TrEMBL record:
Co-chaperonin implicated in mitochondrial protein import and macromolecular assembly. Together with Hsp60, facilitates the correct folding of imported proteins. May also prevent misfolding and promote the refolding and proper assembly of unfolded polypeptides generated under stress conditions in the mitochondrial matrix. The functional units of these chaperonins consist of heptameric rings of the large subunit Hsp60, which function as a back-to-back double ring. It comes from Gallus gallus. This is 10 kDa heat shock protein, mitochondrial. Keywords: Chaperone. SUPFAM superfamilies: GroES-like. Gene3D superfamilies: GroES chaperonin. GO terms for molecular function: ATP binding; protein folding chaperone. HAMAP family: CH10. Belongs to the GroES chaperonin family.
Length: 102
């Protein structure tokens, strides 16, 4: 079931708003992982996308990801935004490393 997002925020140009996935707290073997050992989660779900960047030719180049897709983020970067008491991150389209295929 696809999650619907109803935020009152729309990124501009080639920006992508993502929500990081929850960190794994238990290993497959059932061992609890402490918070300090979990590390940063690099997988996220796209929540909103901008219209695209304007190229040198003046045409708009659309963003390469769509709402609902799972993407791989860089370890550092992005701008943290709090909307409706939840943490979201804003990245440029070119900063996203890749997307997961189903």
């Amino acid at each position: 079931m696809e999650k619907k997002y109803s935020l009152k925020f729309l990124p501009l140009f080639d920006r992508v708003l993502v929500e990081r996935c929850a960190a794994e707290t238990v290993t497959k073997g059932g061992i609890m992982i402490p918070e300090k050992a979990q590390g940063k989660v690099l997988q996220a779900t796209v929540v909103a996308v901008g219209s695209g960047a304007r190229g040198k030719d003046g045409e708009i180049h659309p963003v390469s990801v769509k709402v609902g897709e799972k993407v791989l983020l860089p370890e550092y970067g992005g701008t943290k935004i709090v909307l409706e008491d939840k943490d979201y991150y804003l990245f440029r389209d070119g900063d996203i490393l890749g997307k997961y295929l189903d």
